[in-house]
Amino acid sequence: MTAVTNGVNVQALLDAREVLKGAPEAAQFTWRASASWQSGVHSQIKVESFFGLGEEQNHQAESVFEADHPAIFAATDNGITPIEYLLVGLASCLTAGVASVAENRGIQLRSVESKLEGAHDIRGILGADSDVRNGFNDIKVTFTIDADASKQEIEALVAQSQKRSAVFDALSNPTNITVEVA
Amino acid sequence: MLERGEVANSWRNERWDSLRLLTPNFQSRLPGLRYEGQDPDGYMTMGEVADFIEAFAKVSGAPVRTGVTVTSVRSAGGGFMITHSGGEIHSRTVVIASGACNLPSVPPLSEAVPAGVVQLTPLRYRGPAQVPDGGVLVVGGSATGVQLAAELRQSGRPVTLSVGEHVRLPRTYRGRDVLWWMDASGVWDQRHDEVEDLERARRLPSPQLAGTPGRATLGLNELTSMGVELVGRLAAVRDGRALFSGGLRNVISLSDLKMERLLGTFDEWATADGCAAEVGPPERFEPTRVPERSRLQLDLASGEIRTIVWATGFRPDYSWLGVPVVDAKGQLQHEGGAVTGSPGLYALGLPVLRRRKSTFICGIEDDAREVTGELARHLASSG
After folding, report:
1. Which of A6, A36, B270, B377 is 20 to 30 Å from the Cα of B207, by its Cα?
2. ipTM metric
3. Which H or E run includes B34?
């Protein structure tokens, strides 16, 4: 096997897996975001700190996201809609997975492109039909991957990346959510 | 040799009526005893398995004491004190051969199932007659799950099968039983210290196989054709509703890809071994048909589902084992059958104990020779 360079430090991930097997408390992470209403349906969300490996952690810099709705929703379109952020999360999670699995399997990637489509019947959120759900009805992800690998190996990369994806799991399985007023 | 019931007890008393062995008759071989009937490609009924093991007890002259239940094994005086229903035995060594399938492994979410729904485990299930009329939710897509889903569907009941990660296999490949391939190609001989991810190999669900007189494949496509509805992995029961994963398509892709890879290794072996001419031409199977849109929830209080069958696997029962050698997940810690941290204590018949074939009838011989070899060396050195 020739050395591949997809830029993923797989050894660090494998080492972490071994260490955390015996230290489940260190594996408990809390991810955070804080949002602040701007005006109309526009809000601003900041992400900087998180908790993990037993202590407070920080990203190298704070990230700021604008969320709004497009003009056809009679909104100001200062940023993408909240449900589009789910596609952002899913795309980035699966892509990271593809790169990691490829590195681990010794597959050199040249390009990994994906297109995501979420089918959404907005009668749900508008309360126009109580039989229609609020969220996506279906999400379709289409990968186009150029790599030193057979079609079957590429399909296996994509399948394994879904199997180990946090966002794929969060979207495809139910999650308990508590929303409180402080 | 202490047996709580009679010889072949679990085969006689803890299996459903229609079950047949997953391995074909020609693989039913133990030291000094092999199948010699007219149907080498067939699959034994549970009665036939019990007879076969009974015959082996005689052929081998094993000193079996039946009707003796072990209630505890403790370390004592450089060996072990075994307490059983008829008294106590002190022994320098003990081999645990009670298997990995003593208790049904039912997920905690079963506690949230509404009271009106009957819940069954494979250890209590005997046949469709015992199941109320009406819909059945079978949870689990291993050999047990697909067999019970098929049988219950054939009894006329609407059946929904909840499928998580599973192992797809055709019953026959290139004209031979797929388990012939596993054995002949050397896959089953792969040793515990050669398997890449041993923990995973030991957790692998049983492949989707059934032993039927017609040697038919029984996978998700066959179940779909019978009218069984496929849904994703059961993720939660909330407010009386079963919630299923939306990831069905991916668990199906994973198992289709793995099957293709396995068949590819069989083909490579057949070519290299020179037996390619003796078997049929390579085959490739239709991809598993995935429902365009699988249901994500099911109202368990609506009456649509009258019964849930938990085909969610089994776990060993070590509640009698008073030696601290069981991990937090209830599994015995051992190295190829030599129990970790307790010299003189051994195990046999656990998944991938020393080889991939460890839990098959034809797989016990090699394991037993090596483990008893270690045991004899232990006795000689600690004498």
Report:
1. B270
2. 0.87
3. strand B33-34
